[in-house]
Amino acid sequence: MAPAPSSTYSAITLNINGEKYTLPVDHRTTLLDALREQLDLTGTKKGCDQGQCGACTVLLDGRRAVSCLQLAVAAEGRAITTIEGVADGERLHPVQQAFLDLDGYQCGYCTPGQICSALGVIEEHAAGWPSAVTADVRPEAGAPPLTAEEIRERMSGNLCRCGAYVSIVQAVARAAEEAQVAESQGAESDMAEPQVAEAEAAEAGIGAKGAAA
To answer: Coil, strand, or helix at residue 106?
Structure first.
């Protein structure tokens, strides 16, 4: 068989988990195959290879994508997050920890995609995005309660052949609750900082304006 013409190949640079990788790819190569076969990032799993099971889910610019349907050349210039980039060194992400604590996996094959999808779900919900089961979809209604029904609908693109769905829903709910608590504590801290500075300045007898100067 004659080799493919060189015009079907390009050297691309992918930004994956904060690092840049330059590699030659056939224009028909999917992001999934580039990750697994060329970059040895095998945490992203190949399941159906048709966009139906969610095992290959990654984040593109923070949004969920099934990498088996995403061309590698089309991902150039975008921030790609795979399961290898979720943890902070040896410290697990709260979503990973919740899956571990609540047995949100059995064989583990679908787990990387489930976790990446859960990260997207939590961000989408925090941004107020409705789902197919959201009763009030008006923008002014804000984010709906993240009930088990909401989680099941939002995670429905990720299949688990072991049937660990009950624990997966519980893990997503716990991680989402922890994210909300962390966000509220961060907001309270941001509000408290100017007040603390003003109090310290007043105690020093220089006034807030003097302290700011």
So the answer is: coil
Residue 213 scores a pLDDT above 60: no
- Can you tell me the distance from the alpha carbon of 134 to that of 169, in angstroms, rounded to the nearest whole number? 17
Residues with Cβ within 8 Å of 11's Cβ and at least 6 positions away in sequence, in order, are 22, 23, 24, 25
Q: pLDDT tens-digit profile of 50-71?
A: 999 999 999 999 999 999 999 9
pLDDT exceeds 70 at position 160: yes
Q: Are 133 and 149 in contact (CB under 8 A)?
A: yes
Q: How far is CA 128 from the centre of its chain?
A: 16
List C-alpha distances in Å: 145 to 39, 62, 116, 128, 198: 39, 22, 21, 10, 37
CA atoms within 13 A on the CB side of 204: 13
| Nearest alpha carbon to residue 109 among 153, 62, 170, 164 | 164
Mean pLDDT for all residues in the chain: 89
Q: How far is CA 4 from CA 8, 27, 29, 69, 87, in A?
A: 7, 11, 13, 22, 39
What residues does 59 pair with on adjacent strands?
Answer: 64, 81
DSSP 37: I
User: In the chain, how many H helices and how many E strands?
Assistant: 6, 5
Does 189 have pLDDT greater than 90? no
Element (H, E) at 64: strand 63-66
What is the rounded CA–CA span in Å between residue 116 and residue 80? 11
User: What is the token pair recorded at 26?
Assistant: 């056939």
